[in-house]
Amino acid sequence: MVEADTRHAAHFRQKAAEAAVAGQSTASLIAARRALLLAPFDPASCYYLSLSSRTIGASSDSGRFAHWAAAALPGRCVVPLHRELFTLAGLSEDNISMLRRAALMAPENGDGHYNLGNADDRANQPEDALGNFRRAQIARPLHTGTLGNIARLKALIMGGEDAEEAVRRALSATPADFLSLRNCGLWRRRKNDPRGAVGWFRRAVAVNPQSREAQGELGRALMIVGAFQEGWRRLEYFRLPAWLPPIEGLPKWEGRPLASGSLLLWSMDQIGDELQFSIFLQRAVEAADRVTLLVDPRNRALFRELYPEVRVIDSIDEVLTGGAEWRATACYPFDFVGRFFARGPADLSERGRERVLQRPRRNSHQLRIGISWWSGAPIIGGLKSTALEDWARLLKTPGCCFVSLQYGEGARDWKMFQEIESIPGFDPYSPTLDFAERVAELDLVITVGNTTAHIAARTTTPVWVLLASGLGPSWIWLRKGSRTPAYPNARLFRQPVPGDWKPVFRQVQSELSAWVQSRE
After folding, report:
1. Which of 145, 177, 198, 278 could serve as a FRET partner for 70 with CA atoms 20 to 30 Å apart?
2. What structural domains does the chain harbor?
3. pLDDT tens-digit profile of 225-259?
């Protein structure tokens, strides 16, 4: 009986193998299951079960079966089978260690290094990812995905002299590939050429109009060059499919005055972006009479302080409360409400400039200047950030006391500089009203283009914003000039060359010395 079961198990295992080779995943899955019913501990059958599970989309099952088979197979088993099992386990569970084992077992296998590169990329390890994509390229010089990923990492994150060559090499290999076209657009943005980027992103969208990523990149580039209306439309295409209104079936606002009820504006973005979008809130209040605003809990108190007539909430559960007069009759994403009020940069000027936080300055024999030098934004944060060493000469400016407003990982560095003090009891992750009140007591804020800049812009304190060139700056800072109509109290200092902060700090140091003298 046991011998018969073994023969039948071998028969079904062979059927599973033949079906897998023929690309018949469901048939391979059924045959592998039958083999395992007869021989529950047969690792080869488990391998085909893992392989077919992965192919039909059952990733969690694939990973479980792959781990089981890899543990059951002896160490002397053929390397390709183990490599495949480690790959299946890694792809199913995003397990970098499994993918690394697969690549180590077959260094010449381009697919293994490609998979590992993608895993490193997802884990925000761009240098490791680039190394693995380069190894994959040695094995497969013209592989579209490998060339595209190398180009994207070089253009978007790494930079360097060979970045443009990587982008052009990928485009030459796949001239009609929308990812290659998108990479060209990213590279032009990195080179501070948003108009050139618009052209490449348009070509990418023409090749693949369903690509939300390409639509989003085109939208961002259009906003930077001042084409707001088309820019918002493209960004909506990118963002809105993932957004559901807090109340199902609630009509979408079309920008016209509401006869009754309340306009519900909701945001699902970061706190700094919510503050940025609030430059249009006054106009929404004028158009809709009653506005309910759903925001991040950290922004709730500040918006209530600045806009007492707006019903500000931070939980979807609160949408249905508040009385009949606050019953929502239309809704719109807060992030895109500007499309009704700003056709271009000239329309950015904020109405009701009195909607800022005012607090008395502290008396001090020195001018108190808040600084923030680091951005934690995904991907572009490194492009926007500065090193504290860049600030060394600035921190020695006579008559100034510098205090840290830094949040996140960058906050650990300031203790190395005796010139930087801390604000007693200050917590950069506290509600933004607390942050803004501390900022309002300062004489000046100098910061990279991050959340600190948007908070400072909601006070009467002057804010100097250090802007990276290329991919880093938001559209609200526009492309040129030292001012933005959105924030009258902000002055902009721009990198002339991407990645080079030295000219910026020379200008800031000169301007700061003159500003201190003018205050004496």
Report:
1. 145
2. 1-66 (1.25.40), 262-348 (3.40.50), 367-519 (3.40.50.2000)
3. 999 999 999 998 887 766 677 777 888 899 998 88
